[in-house]
Amino acid sequence: MVVPSPTEVSRLLVDWGKGDRAALDELIPLVYDELRSLAGRYMRRENQGHTLQTSALINEAYLRLVDQKSVQWQNRAHFFGVAAQLMRRILVDHARSRLRAKRGGGVQMVSLVESGATSEEVAEVIALDVALKDLAEMDPRKSQIVEMKFFGGLTTEEMAEVLKVTSRTVEREWRKAKAWLNRALKQGATNEA
Amino acid sequence: MKPERWKQVDELLEAALDCPATERAAFLDRACSGDEELRRELESLLISDGEKGVFIESHPAGVAADLFTDKLPKPGKGERIAHYEVLGQIGSGGMGDVYLTRDTRLGRKVALKLLPPSLTADPQLKARFFREAQLASALDHPNICTIHEVGQSSSFLFIAMQYVEGATLKQIIESRPLKLDALLSISLQAADALAAAHDQGIIHRDIKSTNIIITPRGQVKVLDFGLAKLTDVSGREGVSKAESELTRTGAVMGTPSYMSPEQARGERVDHRSDIFSLGVVIYEMASGDVPFKRKSQAETMNAVINEPHTPALEFNREVPSALSATIDRALSKDPADRYQSMGEMLRDLRQVGRAVGLLGSSDSQGAVIPYVPLGRQSARRWMWAMALLGLALLVGLGLWFSSLPPRPQPSGPPPRAIPLTSYVGMEILPAFSPDGKQVAFSWDGEKGDNFDIYVKLVDTGTPHRLTTHLAEDSFAAWSPDGSHIAFRRHTHESDAVYLIPSLSGPERKLADIFPRLMGNTVGGDGLAFSPDGKFLAVPDKDSAREPFSIMLISIETGEKRKITSPPAGSVGDNTPAFSPDGSELAFSRMSGQGVEDIYLMPAEGGEPRRLTFDNRFNKHLDWTADGREIVFISDREGGTGLWRVSASGGTPEPLLTAVGYNITRLSISRQGNRLVYTQNFVDTNIWRAELAGTKGKVSAPTMLISSSKDDSAPQYAPEGKRITFRSDRSGSLEIWACEADGSNPVQLTNFSGPKVGSPSWSPDGRQIAFDARPEGNPDIFVISAEGGRPRRLTDDPAEEIAPSWSRDGRWIYFESNRNGSMQTWKIPAEGGEARQVTKGGGSVAYESMDGKFLYYTKGRNVVGIWRVPVEGGEETLVVDTHKAGYWSAWTLVEKGIYFMTAEQPARPAIEFFSFSTGKVTEVVALAKPFRPWTNPEGLSVSPDGRWILYTQEDRSDTDIMLVENFR
Predict the structure, then answer these.
(1) CATH class belonging to B689-776+847-956
(2) What is the 3-state secondary structure (H, E, C) of B801-821?
(3) B77 touches chain A (CB under 8 A)
(4) Does residue B793 register a pLDDT over 70?
(5) Which residues between 96 and 125 in chain B have a beta carbon less than 8 angstroms from any beta carbon of chain A?
(6) pTM for this entry
């Protein structure tokens, strides 16, 4: 993989910030590749519990990809917004291939750790992805907030920056989105059963 | 639902959520007014809002981690695992596959052993793995394959090991006995490696011929220390499910042929089990095969436990009987009958080595073991050689090998430092983030104009700028959760401690602190976050007269609490560092410039315990990750270097020295394997400016005395024909002298130790007084202007510096804190009793030309030059514009005083204060600004008044260096 230069990514971020939509199209694959490769070789942090934090991953991708001198901190929020979207894609793809493997599909993916929680979580991620698509059709902003918070680990302030709304609005939207998703996910579970 | 409808629902939902719960029903009645569907929708959403515990509330981390870690791909060529790029698979062992990789950071080849993720699933097992492997990675022996790093990627636990080219001993033996030379060399090296490990309390548990690599030149490398325990079926304590599964797979069962009987029985083992296994390996080299080998593992184990072995002699008559006896003893069934230590076995092996001429007859315990190269196929084996070449040739080859000069054994690789930053300007005060992946530091930027806090990933990337304020931001310290960085902001008026999110964001001022004076040698340095995240430790004080104490500032309230009380008259306590568990605080206590020692105290407060007794520059410390040692910077052996000392006391040991550089600050990652420090390269030179040119014309200043290093503190000889100065061009700071035109420099002193300086010429031009620190604390010395043996003039535990002669040559004035404060003293030039001259503070002093007055400054903290009658009396302030910080950059002539000034930092100059007019005029505009941390010591005017000498910093570069695999 050709590693994009920090200036290249920075330029795309700045251009996109100025409203150049094509810049985003160029940016997405670069960030996606970086996130995926980072996720694949992510060193777990010994001192901070044993979890892979998506926000840390995104932060690292940001530090790797972006030349900090040429971008504003607002650009960072936008980067995080995009990264959260990509993180969702990566996680959901992962979850789906995992599910296929479990069902004896063609994908050879041997799981050595078979914890019950994992398969449950896998199903949850996929269910959330589906529910979010429904939500996005009615209310894209709420869907984006959930995406940024859950998959990207963005803080309320960062989300406010991305969406150009107040933190209070983000919090209210999050609460309502949660109420809707709670219900949708529960209904989904019932339907399946 | 249609977006329009949803919009309606959404608005009403928001309003309903704002209603108190008791009023919601009424609100819904009103709002829905008959639209039952709308009401049901809202009600169910409100119910859902009241429910808890759907997973989107939880942190997504667990999901992500699980998703990423359950996959076990076989890494392909070019793929990366952490910062290792896979080049190809080179083996697969019981515990996992081994890959040849390239360390992308250091560019070297590394063998990477990947362990199955099942290990990661069980926290107990994983913790044990890290414990064992980290213990093993501390082993430093030429015959032990170095473990560079033990780490974890999303899919693997891995061990990064030194990549050793060579063959396994098993491959070399190939079922045939080895030549005696080779056998003994390998046995001795392996035994030496094991003895070293046993001394560290590490048992290998899986010594076998496939775990021993022989390099082409015959060096032994023992592999896989510390791993065996993980597969050890006998270690029953706390065997978890995953662990027993791991051992059940058989693949990791180990090889019963090399097991000791107690191991085969599943009993606890100690180091004597390794002695047995090494006996098996030596037997294998001597006879061509292992002593116990049966059809099944169970039968083999049974043989190990119950059956006697056939002596190796019976397979190979050339085995000396002493060697056969050594093997037999090692193979005793009962550990009590074996050698009781590897050292004991090593002694017997050495005996055999001497008897057959591999080792010299005077060979002692510590002598080097010669390697026997194994690259020549033709010379490797007894049988093969005998059959083909005949005995005569064999003897010839034997002699050839035996007469090879013993190779000096390379000691373990010293820690190697590579630049982490090498930007223009100064990158200083690095601090590792808690996860060890980022470093925060202070950088004066590409323009070199303003220090701000930057953060950089260790592996890659450009630095991310956190602060932009015009003040000097430095001393970054991470909060334990990595979310914030504390730093110090220094302006001309004040210092304060701030907090900023580590990913940028608004700053928050926490507390004002006493301004640290310019320069890094005058105290007040440091900032440390307590591991519980509640406090910052920082040197602080209420007034200039007090020494710095360590204060704890509460993160929550900004309140301060003083926890140390250094003695009055000292500079005070600096560079605090909390132990990793937060229980202790280490700091350096500074009694004078460059006179510091390290202390430890309970972090809660309490009596400090002194750890070093050097009276030298000992500071900028940090704890090792295990909390057992403190690494610090010291000039205890000349140039600054990194040293380590046990937190429980003892003699410090050198860790790393960087010749020709100034090491100025360090930080150790909490993971323990990385260390960063800054190294400062300064080139100062002595310049000459013309004060009174012919016919009113003044030529431009010229560089008179220069090297690529520190040349400073020039002084004209009384007749003006020579100049004395100090320089570290020969490796350490020494006193030098040269002609007035800078030619013919001669080194006068040879201390090879820490700072030597302040040379001052006697009025008759025959002697030079100076200060030096052969025992750490500075004293005054005198040396002949022609060189020779220096004569010690003062011998007081206090700090005594900056000598200058009385005009009649009978006295030498100097600065001393022997009575608790810095005062000017004088001592007969021939030696004798010293007398205090000043009372209200006195530093660098010069007697007036007529010998009636003494002019002096009062140290860095006080602005001005004073004078007092030599015979005693009241002091008077002569000139008050001389800036603190440049306290030694002035000189006295008959008509006035020349001094450097930095009143306007952008316009440094040499100025002249005229005694007759009382006015200050600028005489030389200087090309380069002063750096606060260098001391432009010494101005000197030629006796004819035409020239003035000064020191200028012509180049300064400070970079952050990274030491990987620090242990």
Answers:
(1) mainly beta
(2) EEEEECCCCCEEEEEECCCCC
(3) no
(4) yes
(5) 116-118, 120-121, 123
(6) 0.44
